[in-house]
Specification:
alpha+beta; five-stranded mixed sheet
């Protein structure tokens, strides 16, 4: 299983995905420059990603907590999510996200 992550230079990285891990954890462990300052506690917006439109509808709804944190992000899009709130399962194999500018170290 894999996810595809586009970095701040427009380069797409294929990352091995692990069932039950969050997208933020997989991006961080792959060595990509994601801030993720709170470590996945949903108390900041520094793991902000933009989900490819085709994949966005397949994700669970945002929680109120996530919506509140996204309000703190600098540039939010209709398909913005916090990567710490996207738990991977096999139905998300091939998920495509782009690191938001405010999430890049």
């Amino acid at each position: 299983m894999k996810i595809l992550v586009t970095d701040g230079h427009g380069v797409e990285h294929e990352i091995e995905a692990t069932d039950g891990w969050t997208v933020m954890e997989m991006i961080r462990d792959a060595g990509l420059p994601i801030k993720a300052e709170c470590g996945g506690s949903c108390v900041c917006a520094t793991c902000h990603v933009i989900v490819e439109a085709d994949w966005f509808a397949k994700l669970p709804e945002k929680t109120e907590e996530e919506v509140d944190m996204l309000d703190l992000a600098l540039e939010v899009f209709d398909t913005s999510r916090l990567s710490c709130q996207i738990e991977f399962d096999p139905s998300l194999d091939g998920l495509k996200v782009t690191l938001a500018p405010d999430a890049i170290m």
